[in-house]
Predict the structure.
Amino acid sequence: MIVGLAVVLLCQLIGEIFAYTTHLPLPAPVVGLVLLFGFFVVRDRWEWLPFSLRSEEIDKTCETLVQQMALLFVPAGVGIVQRLGILQANILGVLAIIVVTTAVSITVTAFTFRFVSRWFPAPMENQE
């Protein structure tokens, strides 16, 4: 568990350093997740390394974090409650953003599904 948690926190730390030094409008946790994803991709393909990057501990740590994901939303909820006055002052704008981004997200998802489904047609059922 310690090694897996260290890898996850190391990716998070590198993401924080990247976001702080580059001043790009990317959240550091997103950069850390991309790095962790890259680690998993590289880990499975680099068999020529003299040491093994494979570790069951990393997989178990990530599974545990995903299972406890609900707890990670508590600080975000507390942050929203702390700034409830700002939220109330801008409620129409926030609601408009939520509605527009939801509609755009659904539309983009539908078009992406239709575009990709042309390449992978559904298998025919009972084709005998």
